[in-house]
Structures are given as structure tokens and as C-alpha cells.
Amino acid sequence: MKISKVLLVRKKSTYEIQALEHQESKFLALIQNNHESIKKVVQAHEEHKASLNLITQILDDKGISYVIKDRSKITHKITDVDLVITVGGDGTLLDASHFIQGKIPILGVNSSTSSSFGHFCLAQGHNFKHYLESIENDNIHPIAILRLELLINNISQNDLILNEVLLTHPNPAATSRYLISINADFEEQRSSGIIIATPAGSTGTLKAALGQVMPIYTDNFQYLVREPGLRPNEVFKYQKGILNKLSCVKIVSKMRQAKAFIDGPHLSFDFNLGDEVMVRPSSKFLFAFIDKNVNEQFK
């Protein structure tokens, strides 16, 4: 693969944001006192900075043009680059993925192994050059990873779902009330919300809620009703299941206010009483350099 131009998407470390940029007095006092809650923050910052410096040095040595952007500053679809490299953890790759809709591949680099698991990150700072050269020499190829599409009242939202979407009441202590349909009739339910996850997302929140881990390369997806509010002798027909690429999940809200949280807490869409929400597989896969067996460790 010919790599001439790269977009480097980087996270800002907690230390960078709170100590260097905002100079928050309480945070600085915790640092000064070596408080238990922030012991790893400085280490993670130094690791992240060293990884970013190493990556840019390698790109410079190879004569590869690159632009560095903070993940929070990306506002438009990513075009005109050969490769997107994320420098951070899984959250950085998730954020960047929302702006990729073509076949531009993405490579995740876990920049701080002391603070980040890096499930989606094939590379780390110390082996980044190896993986970059493997890509250049066509020794490794990107895997097509399923994403999901969110529609509210038949209007497709722009941000595709790489991990999962949580449909729920905006207050975590409140009951979610809705009608749900899986390719058939609607059923009335009460719960703490519905998780709808891709194979990539089957190792996170879905697994914690006792969903099933799936291979990252499959085009099936999965739904699970969290904490169903079953009354005595009541059974919900639609409680969890694995669905194929022709299926969809629909809900009709019985809540005055509700939210669809995409890939974590930072990106959400509002919907309200009587609104219909549909989640279905998208034809726009994400092409990522990742180990095809990465999910097996969670089984």
C-alpha cells in the first residue's frame, strides 16, 4: 500500500487538559500530594507524549506527509489521506471512526499501555514502525468491520455506530418505557434501556450485560434489553438475540425524553414521546488494521 499522506488523530491526556491547559487547582493539589486517584496520570501523559513523538519521527524519516488533529477538533468527514492513524486508546479510534465513510483505512496505536487497554489498537509506540512497514509492503490488510446506522423517524443520522448504541431514558435512575420490534410486531417493555452492538462492540458493555462475544469480522449484530422490568409471571419475547445483516431493531418511545448514546457518553441524539427509532446494519464498513482474532480473548 502506498502511503503518502496521513492524518494523525491524537487524544489529549488528562494531565494535559487539567494540569497544563486549565490549571485546575484541585487537580494540581492532588498531583502535588501524590493522591491515589491520580497516581497514573503523569505516567500516562509521559507515555502518550513519547509515543506521539516516536510516531512523528518515523513518519518524518520515511518522508510521509502528515497532519495532526486533536480528536475533539475533527468536524468534517475525513478525505484526501491514505491512512488514518489514531494515537491514544480505543476512545480515540472510536471518535475518529465517526468521520470515516469511505475506504480510507485506520490504524490504532495504543500510546499509553499503563492506562489504556487498546482493544482496537494493533500497534504500540515501540512496534509502530514494524506495523507501518507491514502495511506499506502489503503484508497485512485491513479488515472490514460492521457498523450500524441509526434512524430517528426514518431520518438517518450522520454518525455510524462502531461499538454500540444505548437507547434509554436520559436519567440513569429512571425506567425506560417503549415498544420494541425485531422484524415483527411491537412488544411493550420497561427496562433500563436497550443495547444494540456490533461484533466490535460485543466485548464491552454488551458482554458486561451478559451478551455474547462475536468474532470482529462477522456481519451479524446483537441486541440486549438491560435489566428488564418484568412483573410476576410476565415474559418479554424480545429480550436478547443475534440478528443477521437483513434485520433491524425498532422502538417507539413511550418516554417524554429519551436518548440514543453512540459509542459511549460523548455522542448522543435526542428522541421523544411517539418517535420511532430504528437501528440496522450499514453498508459502510470501517476498514481497520486489526487482528481478526482480537475478540477471542474475551470468550
Key words describing this protein structure:
single chain, 299 residues, alpha+beta, Rossmann fold, Tumour Suppressor Smad4, six-stranded antiparallel sheet, 19 strands, 31% strand, globular
Notes on the protein architecture:
The chain is α+β, with helices and mostly antiparallel strands. It has two domains: 5-141, Probable inorganic polyphosphate/atp-NAD kinase, domain 1 (Rossmann fold), CATH 3.40.50.10330; 148-282, Sandwich (Tumour Suppressor Smad4), CATH 2.60.200.30. Helix content is 20%, strand content 31%. The chain has six helices and 19 strands. It has helices spanning 14-21, 25-32, 41-62, 90-97, 128-136, 205-208; strands at residues 5-10, 65-70, 83-88, 106-110, 123-124, 143-145, 148-152, 155-156, 164-168, 176-182, 187-191, 193-197, 221-226, 240-243, 249-253, 257-262, 267-272, 276-281, 286-289. The strands form three sheets. Strands 1, 2, 3, 4, 5, 6 and 19 form a seven-stranded mixed β-sheet that branches. A six-stranded antiparallel β-sheet has the order 8-7-18-15-10-11, with no helix packed on it. It has a six-stranded antiparallel β-sheet with strand order 14-13-12-9-16-17, with no helix packed on it. Strand 16 and strand 17 (267-272) form a beta hairpin. The chain starts with a strand and ends in a 10-residue tail after the last strand.
